[in-house]
Amino acid sequence: MESGGRESGGGGLVAATGREKHMGKRELYQPPWNFLGLPAELSNRSAARAWVLPVPYEATTSYGAGTRDGPAAIIAASRQVELFDREFGCEPASKFGVHTMDMMWPAFDSPAAMMGAVEETVAGILRGSPAPEVLAVLGGEHSISAGVVRGIARAVPSKELVVVHEDAHADLRDEYEGCRFSHACAARRILEVCPIFQIGIRNISEGEEKFRRGCRDVRTVFAEEAAAGRRFLERLAEFVRGKRVYLTVDLDGLDPSIMPAVGTPEPGGLSWEALLDVARTVFREAKRVPVFDVVELAPMPGMRGPDFLAAKLVYKLMSLALLKPARRVL
Ligand SMILES: [Mn+2]
Predict the structure, then answer these.
(1) From 50, 89, 127, 230, which residue has the greatest number of CB atoms within 10 Å?
(2) How remote is the CA of residue 252 from the centroid of ligand 1, in Å?
(3) Is the bond preceding 54 in cis, omega lying within 30 degrees of 0?
(4) In degrees, to the nearest 5, what angle opens at C-alpha 235 toward C-alphas 232 and 220?
(5) Nearest to 137 by CA among 318, 274, 323, 278
């Protein structure tokens, strides 16, 4: 048996907290079907400060398929994530609550129609009442980020908005396979809205490289620089300081030895610790992070590690958004 989480059976020495105290014997092995498996009082819409929007969209994937199953796999794995976090010295989710929205049903008319739908949905959530303090969007393929950034820009002053983009791919093509809303164009569409800071890039075409060099609004930390140390974090801090930030995490930006479950894996990439340092820098320096996304998980049958990594990452990001760390783990 694992030591944390769900063994709340009678007579335990450890006081039951969070989801444990609400679980009877029957639910012990089946926490509720929501992000982190939280009980109603922590997951209802009016009380939760963090919301999760699952977007199981997959239409323009160019290599390995399966991102449509990403959101469900992240939610399934999240129900096994330990709620207690040493960095915060508490169960963050028990402090802020997490509401899991219904899956956003994809619009398959065209990628442009889907991006419009995502934009509407995100803008509606951010302007709604109640509204989350942080919205976690679960992909699905990376193309959805083009809709997310437009939705944010409609809801918050766009002059203050910047994007931090962790990815193996520059995603700076103006179009790919005839489509402007391909996953390979995500960063280019974001640039039409605001500046972007890319981290972990190790796959870029000649055309994208030329474009990047000529564009003042793109900053790039290539994978080898990100692997060489933490000096780039100072530039990142400067980029996000005092801004509203949308953090978009394409999981293929991570080293594929820890994150093989992606459609287009690339050798090299960020470690788990390096990605968390990026996140800590962003959340510490930004004025606010109203939205982040974690995209491109393509679950591999029988392999739980990547799903669990993605779930733990989403939990960590919302915790950093809403709570101050109690101890330094850097
Ligand atoms: Mn990518």
Answers:
(1) 50
(2) 5
(3) no
(4) 70
(5) 318
Per-residue pLDDT tens over the stretch 210-259: 999 999 999 999 999 999 989 999 999 999 999 999 999 999 999 999 99
Domain extents in the chain: 40-322
Q: What is the pLDDT of residues 53-78, one digit of tens each?
A: 999 999 876 677 899 999 999 999 99
Q: How remote is the CA of residue 223 from the centroid of ligand 1, in Å?
A: 12
Strands 196-201 and 161-166: parallel
Name beta bridge partners: 228: none
Omega cis (within 30) before 140: yes
40-322: CATH number:
3.40.800.10
Buried residues in 152-182 as b, exposed as e (16+ CB within 10 A) = bbbbbeeeebbbbbbbbbbbbbeebeebbbb
Q: Quick check: pTM over 0.70?
A: yes
From ligand 1's centre to the CA of 281, what distance in Å? 22
